[in-house]
Specification:
The protein is of the alpha+beta class. Among the domains are: 99-206, Immunoglobulin-like, CATH 2.60.40.420; 243-308, Cytochrome c-like domain (Cytochrome Bc1 Complex, Chain D, domain 2, Orthogonal Bundle), CATH 1.10.760. The protein has 7 helices and 12 strands. Strands 3-2-1-5-8 form a 5-stranded mixed sheet, covered by helices on one side. A 5-stranded mixed sheet has the order 4-10-9-6-7. Helix 1 (15-46) packs antiparallel against helix 2 (63-91) and helix 4 crosses helix 7 (296-308). The longest helix has 32 residues, at 15-46. The model is unreliable at 312-316 (pLDDT under 50). It binds heme C and copper (II) ion (CU). Heme C binds next to helix 5, helix 6 and helix 7.
Length: 316
């Protein structure tokens, strides 16, 4: 039989609302293409050379017509804008209870690690019905995380975190792609998202023994890189304690002024790689930069550890 799917599955909570907007825009484009196409043909036939029609060229100005063809496209344009903006905000506003998963893109694979510790390559296992938030970065060039069935795509950039969230609605296996040309093997940089029943997911997480969680591995790295030497144990060095810092506004020395930034993952990342760029008010800029010394995957673990110190991260 015919198997010629023009459209991917609708497998996330974003999918149907994005498709609705897409089809609306499509319908508008088709409607006006048809109207204009018909007008072109009719006028071309009617005014073809030699045909007997009125060619006196009377005055054609009509303010009413002008107002109409300004107003209608304006309204349609604003509907698309508002509709799109609402969806956009929704797509970039993950729910607070989202399951956190770390993603590192590299030529040419996706390295994925769950907060509980289990890591996988080119596969992402997630439970159905649960919102999932990805924190993503790249170890080399720009990649892009694209799951057509979820209607989500987000660039993955070296040197910073981007994020993406979705809530899968149907168990199954869905294609995952890299959607940004990233070198020779770009076309094979992909894999599968496996949406499982929650119980099956729980089993999958602990398969092959329960190793350390990301936060636990981060705690080990925190000692290994001598962060603890200043941030926990020191009596000679004055460094801020990191308990509770995640998600809180931090006072930053800004010349003579103090400004506040929220300690999110991007801030913590910068604090570790470029400590001099944002110095916490009341402290000396003595923290060394760890740029180039900690891999992206280890950095995500250290950040998971610092988050866990705030008791915000659900480390199960
Ligand atoms: C030599 C001592 C020293 C070492 C080693 C050190 N830090 Fe720091 N760190 C500081 C000081 C001092 C500050 C506050 C001044 C600033 O922001 O640079 C700071 C700030 C921070 C902040 C921002 C804290 C806040 O309250 O906003 C984070 C996060 C951080 N460090 C993480 C780390 C991590 C992770 C490591 C290990 C990879 C590390 N530090 C190693 C001294 C140190
Ligand atoms: Cu890629």
């Amino acid at each position: 039989m015919w198997n010629f799917p023009l459209f991917p599955d609708q497998a996330s909570s974003h999918a149907s609302s994005i498709d609705a907007l897409y089809f609306f825009e499509w319908a508008v484009a088709i409607f006006f293409s048809i109207v204009i196409g018909i007008a072109v043909v009719v006028l071309a036939v009617r005014y073809r050379s030699g045909s007997k029609v009125d060619r006196t060229n009377p005055p054609t100005h009509s303010q009413f017509m002008e107002a109409i063809w300004i107003a209608i496209p304006f309204v349609i344009g604003m509907v698309m804008f508002a509709w799109g903006a609402i969806l956009f905000y929704d797509m970039y506003d993950p729910p607070g209870d989202a399951l956190e998963v770390s993603v590192v893109g590299k030529q040419w694979m996706w390295y994925i690690q769950h907060a509980q510790g289990r890591a996988e390559i080119n596969e992402l296992h997630i439970p159905v019905g649960q919102a999932v938030k990805l924190t993503m970065t790249s170890q080399d060039v720009i990649h892009s995380f694209f799951v057509p069935a979820f209607r989500v795509k987000q660039d993955v950039l070296p040197g910073r975190y981007t994020s993406l969230w979705f809530q899968p609605t149907k168990p199954g296996r869905y294609h995952l792609f890299c959607a940004e040309y990233c070198g020779t093997n770009h076309s094979v940089m992909g894999g599968w998202v496996e949406v499982m029943e929650p119980a099956a997911y729980e089993r999958w997480l602990t398969e092959g023994g329960s190793g350390p969680s990301m936060a636990e591995e981060g705690a080990r790295l925190f000692l290994q890189h001598h962060c603890a030497g200043c941030h926990r144990d020191s009596v000679t060095v004055k460094a801020p304690r990191l308990e509770g810092v995640y998600g809180r506004p931090v006072p930053i020395q800004n010349g003579k002024d103090v400004s506040f930034v929220t300690a999110d993952v991007a801030y913590i990342r910068d604090s570790i790689l470029r400590p001099k760029s944002q110095v916490v008010a009341g402290y000396e800029p003595i923290m060394p930069s760890f740029e180039g010394q900690i891999s992206e995957t280890d950095l995500l673990k250290i950040i998971a550890y610092i988050k866990s110190l705030s008791g915000k991260e659900a480390v199960r």
